[in-house]
Amino acid sequence: MFWQEQIELLPREELSELQTERLRRSLAQAKKSPFYSQALKGIDPQDINSPQDVRGLPFTVKQDLRDSFPYGMLAVPRSQVVRLHASSGTTGTPTAILHSKADLRAWANLMARSLYMAGVRPGDVFQNITGYGLFSGGLGIHQGAERLGAMVIPVGTGNSRRQIALMRQFGTTAMHLIPSYALRLAGVFAEQGLDPRSDTQLRIAVIGAEPHSEQTRKRVEDLFGVKAYNSYGLSEINGPGVAMECPEQNGLHLWEDAFLLEVLHPMTMEPVEPGQIGEVVLTTLERRAMPLIRYRTRDLAALLPGECACGRTHRRLSRIVGRSDDMFIIKGVNVYPMQVESVLMDFKAVGGQYLIILENKGEADSMTVRAELSPEAAGLSPLERAGLARNLAKALRDELLVTPAVEILDPDGLPMTQGKAERVQDHRKLS
């Protein structure tokens, strides 16, 4: 069983004491690495008297991981490393994340705790529809589901018809997948004349790996007849299992016995008030092979105020609204792709896939939103499509204060991606 009551309901004062102790230990461990032996020079872990003392420590950024590639952040002997995860490294130096046996055990326990909180139980059939290999999502979710006692189907990404066949043959009850693919998969069900609400035994979907709106979550729930739980993680910190929604579906509980959380203004790096959007900064408290101190994730979210009705004391993050480096400026207005998605998902005729294209037209920048029709709306006439495009343009203008051009495409009119969906193509040339 992975209802860890003694940790999940730990009073805040005791949780703070636990974090202080683990922060000291994590600092001492980090200083064994070549990078942190210099970055933390002159810092004595025993001077840490509270979690708030983390603010006196330097930040770590992704470029530090690249500059230290491959072993510059390793804090244990190389012989103790049993697994490597890494970014794709298609451009420039990749980032490498190294794990010891103890790290993998702790990760599996956190993931099992997360899945249990979302309602997955021993005996469930858990279909893992995400990439394996160097990407941390596949193996991270897999090891947690196995640790919990579920029967795991490690099918990976793509091949939608096979996904559906496996669900029906083995009675899949829970699945993990990215939200954009969930919406594509629902379309394939419809093409086959099947309804996942009645033709499968699904009851839980774990969705994450890409930012998504509340409207997208609701659409996944409606299409599949499931409860969809938002999951958060990043490979540099742990992979999945950093934070997860409880049955209240009102914010993601971040496991504060394993990670020290800060939400900071991305420009001033000062703490923001609960409820305000800031950059998520995380410090690992239990990782041995490659601890990270004050890692700037670039993910933007808010720390939710108040206590959760579920009784867990670990603080809650809002859903990730985007990344500080995802924002684009069009005609002087700051825009996040999530804002566009939230508008599109309010229109039932619009499918789950969209693409934002930014271009130079004359002296001004232009923004075009290409949106697929849902399978149910595939038969709209040209006149109806034009009307839908006008209504979308108006709704987007009201939300963004910028009027984009809108193009309506057939279902599956955009290229399918195996991983995270591409949402923005910026073709503008800087003058």
Topology, pairings included?
Blueprint lengths: L4 H4 L3 H19 L3 H6 L22 H6 L13 E6 L9 E5 H17 L7 E4 L7 H13 L2 E3 L6 H11 L3 E4 L1 H13 L4 H4 L4 E5 L5 H11 L2 E8 L4 E7 L6 E3 L4 E6 L12 E8 L10 E8 L13 E2 L4 E2 L4 E3 L2 E3 L1 H8 L5 E12 L2 E10 L8 H19 L4 E5 L14 E3 L5
Parallel strand pairs: 3-4, 3-5, 5-6, 6-7, 17-20, 18-19
Antiparallel strand pairs: 1-2, 7-8, 8-9, 9-13, 10-11, 11-12, 12-14, 15-16, 17-18
Helix pairs in contact: 5-6, 8-10, 11-12
Catalytic activity: 2-phenylacetate + ATP + CoA = phenylacetyl-CoA + AMP + diphosphate
Function: Catalyzes the activation of phenylacetic acid (PA) to phenylacetyl-CoA (PA-CoA).
GO biological process, one term: phenylacetate catabolic process
Keywords summarizing the entry:
8-stranded mixed sheet, 431 residues, 30% helix, 20 strands, GMP Synthetase, Chain A, domain 3, 4-stranded antiparallel sheet, 12 helices, alpha/beta
Structure write-up:
The protein is α/β, with parallel strands linked by helices and 431 residues long. It has a domain of 99 residues: ANL, C-terminal domain (GMP Synthetase, Chain A, domain 3). Helices cover 30% and strands 25% of the residues. The protein has 12 helices and 20 strands. An 8-stranded mixed beta sheet has the order 4-3-5-6-7-8-9-13, with helices on both faces. Helix 8 runs parallel beside helix 10 and helix 11 crosses helix 12. The model has no long low-confidence stretch (mean pLDDT 91).
